[in-house]
Amino acid sequence: MAVFRDWLRTLRRASYRGASFFVETDKIKTGRRLVVHEFPLADDPYVEDLGRKANKIDVTAYVAGDNADGAEDALRRACDAGGAATLSLPIISMQAHCEDCSRDFKKDQLGYIAFSLSFVRDGSGAAPFPVAYLGRIIETSVGGIVAALARLFVGSFATLDFADYVHDDAADEIRSIAGQLDSAVRGTTVDVDKAPALLQQIGDFYSDADDLAAVGERADQYDDTTFIAQQSPSAAADIVTRMGDIFTAAAGAIAPDLLEAAVLPLALYVPADNASTTTESGRQSLANVQALRSCLRILALTTLATAIANRTYVDRREAIQARADAAEAFAAELDRISGLADYDVFVAVQTLSGKVADYLSRLITDLAPVVAIEAPRRMPALWWSQRLYGTADRADELVARNGVKHAAFMPHEFEALAD
Fold this sequence. Notes:
This is DNA circulation family protein. Residues 11-92 form the DNA circulation N-terminal domain. It comes from Hyphomicrobium denitrificans (strain ATCC 51888 / DSM 1869 / NCIMB 11706 / TK 0415). The protein has 13 helices and twelve strands. The protein is elongated and about 100 Å long. The chain has three domains: 7-35 and 52-121, Beta Barrel (Elongation Factor Tu (Ef-tu), domain 3), CATH 2.40.30; 131-364, no CATH class; 370-417. A hairpin with a 2-residue loop joins strand 6 (85-89) and strand 7. By secondary structure, the chain is α+β, with helices and mostly antiparallel strands.
C-alpha cells in the first residue's frame, strides 16, 4: 500500500527575524535581466544578459490566537528593523530584506490579523567589503601616487643651464606654495604640541627655496677645452619629499575633519600663468611652475583621501558632500594630467579617486539621513529627544546641530538625525 506524504507535518513554521506567523500564500519572482536589442532590417534580435534579477517574495500571512496582538507587534517590529534576516517559509528558507509590510485588522475577526509582506532576497553585491577595509585600501593607494609623482617630477623639473630667470621663477613659486601651506595651517586648529614643528617645516621650505630650485647641470669649471659639469646639490626629488613631509606632519597635527577642509583648497590651487613660452627658457620656466603646482595639488589630494578615511561622519549629508567635493577635486586634476610621461600618475590618481568614492558610497549606506522637523510649538530639547528617539540622552545633539541658544526652546523648524 502506497504511503503518501503528510504535508502538514513536513511544512516549516513561517517566521522572519524570529517573529512567527502563518502563511496563506507565498510567491517568489525570479528571472534574468535581459535587454533586447532590435536592429533595423534585421530579423534576429540580440539579447543582452545583464545577470539574475533580484528575487522578490510576496507573502500573504496572518497571526491568530489569544496572543495575536503580541505576535502582530513582534512581526511588525521585525519588518521595521534594517538589514537582512532569516525568512523561513513553509518550503524554503533564505536571507531577505523586508521591503513592505501591510497589516489588516478587522474588528469582526478578533484574534486574527492579516499581513501582506514583500521581501527581497539578500545578495553580496551591495556592500562586499566593510568600511574599515576600504579605508585601509585608501591609505595603501596613497604610497603609489607619491612614488609615481616623484618620478614624473624628476623628469620634468630643471632650472640650471637655462636663463637665470628660470631658476628665479621656480624659487618664487616654491615660496608661493610655502605661503599657501602656511595659510592653510594657520587657518585651522592645530595640535598645540605639534604646531611649532609644523610651522618650522613650512618656514624652512620657504627659506630654502633658492637652493631647492637649483636643479640640473651647468658648466662652471673648465680644463683646457673641456668643462666639468657640476651637478646641483639639490635633486628634484627633494622638493617632492619636503612637500610630502609637510603634508604628513599636517595629517598628524590636525584633526581629520579640519584637515579635510584645510587641504581641499590646495587640491584646487590653479593661479594664472604669466611666464613667456616664446623661448626655450620660457617654456622650461612654465613647465617648472606647472610641475610644482601639480605636485602641491596631488599631494593635497592624497592628504584629502587620508583625512576622509580617518574622519568620523555624523550623518549621511556630510558624507555625500564630502564625496561630491572629492569627486570634483580629483576630476579637475585628472583633466589636467596629460601626456605619455604622466600615465603612471594618471592611473594612480584615478585609482585613488575610485577608492575614495567606493569608501564614501559604502559609508553613506550606514549613516543616518538628516530630516527636517516642523512643529507648531516651541518645545524643550529633552521633550523632542524623547519624542524622536525614545530617550532624553540626545537632547544635547539636537541643541548643537541647530545652534539653539536655550535648550528649553527648540525652534519651530529644525533638523535632526533620523533614528
